[in-house]
Specification:
It is a multi-pass membrane protein. This protein has 236 residues and is mainly α. The protein has helices at 2-21, 31-36, 39-70, 77-86, 90-100, 103-113, 119-137, 141-171, 179-233.
């Protein structure tokens, strides 16, 4: 009896040693390994999302620099224009507008070329030129809005594809559930969802930032146009 108890204790100690020796080692998984583990379907969707991210970043920085350049107007610009117009020096005013070369200066130049016509015609000409300037400022910005909505949908598409792969593998596993069999489909489902949301969030934030910057330039254009029209309407 005593020998049996001693043998049981020894067996337990040996088992404990095996468990101790076989402690689970923490496994790390890099982003590259995670993408590769997602299978071909996941890699294709991740590649599409990466291209959308590159496109979004390019549009954002290209438009940001263009809008920033468009908003830089000399604070003394309108005072010079009004002095030239008051003294009848329209050619000098047009030259100043050409040298400044900003949306505001182009609108004022359009108004200067219409001096002598009814004020309503001048206002209409400036408004038409303003629409063209706004269109130029908003060039490709709508693509960011499209990416912000399409990227999460593409990511969810990867989720559906990954779940289909996981269910297919599970159905062909003979009734035994093995995590390594489901891993590929689950990796596809999770990685594409995260990637889609990240790209969508970045595109959404950059789009709204550009909209705010564009609106500031538009307000600047409107303010200077009104100042120019008010000056023309002043009695001589």
């Amino acid at each position: 009896m005593i020998n049996t108890i001693i043998q049981s204790v020894q067996d337990a100690q040996e088992g404990a040693e095996i468990i101790t020796d076989g402690e689970p080692v923490e496994k790390t998984l890099s982003i590259i390994e995670l993408i590769i583990s997602g299978g071909m379907a996941g890699q294709i969707i991740i590649a599409i999302l990466f291209l959308l991210l590159v496109l979004a970043c390019y549009i954002y920085f290209e438009r940001l620099f263009a809008i920033k350049a468009a908003s830089q107007v000399d604070s003394n610009f309108m005072n010079q224009i009004k002095d030239y117009v008051s003294n009848g020096k329209t050619e000098a005013a047009q030259l100043l507008c050409a040298q400044t070369n900003t949306p505001v200066s182009r609108l004022i130049n359009k108004g200067i070329t219409r001096i002598g016509k009814p004020l309503e015609d001048i206002n209409t000409a400036i408004e038409n030129a303003g629409r063209l300037e706004i269109y130029g400022l908003e060039k490709n910005v709508s693509v960011l809005a499209t990416i912000s909505g399409a990227a999460p949908m593409i990511g969810f598409l990867g989720t559906v594809v990954g779940m289909i792969i996981a269910i297919f593998e599970l159905a062909n596993a003979g009734g035994t559930i093995q995590m390594d069999v489901l891993a590929s489909g689950l990796y596809t489902a999770m990685t594409t969802t995260v990637a889609g949301l990240i790209v969508g969030i970045i595109a959404y934030i950059t789009y709204n930032h550009l909209v705010v910057k564009t609106n500031k330039v538009v307000y600047q254009m409107e303010a200077n146009s009104l100042e120019f029209l008010d000056h023309l309407n002043e009695p001589i």
